Amino acid sequence: xxxxxxxxxxxxxxxxxxxxxxxxxxxxxxxxxxxxxxxxxxxxxxxxxxxxxxxxxxxxxxxxxxxxxxxxxxxxxxxxxxxxxxxxxxxxxxxxxxxxxxxxxxxxxxxxxxxxxxxxxxxxxxxxxxxxxxxxxxxxxxxxxxxxxxxxxxxxxxxxxxxxxxxxxxxxxxxxxxxxxxxxxxxxxxxxxxxxxxxxxxxxxxxxxxxxxxxxxxxxxxxxxxxxx
Length: 229
Ligand code: C5P
Known about the structure:
With 229 residues, the protein is α/β, with parallel strands linked by helices. Helix content is 25%, strand content 27%. It starts with 9 loop residues before the first strand and ends in a 6-residue tail after the last helix.
């Protein structure tokens, strides 16, 4: 069979969006299909790792051979990830909602004629990647994603320190490359740059499947100590 360079390694992956309830029928969410995160979990499992996927609500199937925990909100995702530590590596692909409403209403908020829209009080969600990246039980390898529409590299580089990550996988989601047919979000292709403290590696545009396989190989190199710092 194929070589299993990640045999014996425990790896946590987050994927998909989070949904933050406003009331029982409405929510705030980021755009994310889960395609890239689920493909990464599967590709890492194919290299022999014990993969734990923490997924927000998505329409893609649980990858075969991967233990999948289903969550809805950022706080649930954070709790599920923390429960899975210690691990050898953690890869944060989920598009986590940055904010949630301060209290979600127990009943559907009524539209009152002439009453105007409700004033939603927002609070910040926990940053799961930053929490893990700076945690005493931090995995040896922590990888984040950055979907940027401008200043891609400067933003990704700043994110390394702020989030305590070893690598940031940056993808440009501005104009043509973003939402919609042929776009990154929901589409099957992706063009990424791998940003580390030692520089930037540009990968050509390829399928999300190929990005996942290349990233899985990079994880295996890094964990075996072959990668550059
Ligand atoms: O700050 P920004 O949202 O651009 O950071 C993106 C990276 O941080 C992704 O890896 C994402 O999964 C992670 N993240 C997180 N928790 C949040 C926000 C982002 O884990 N609340």
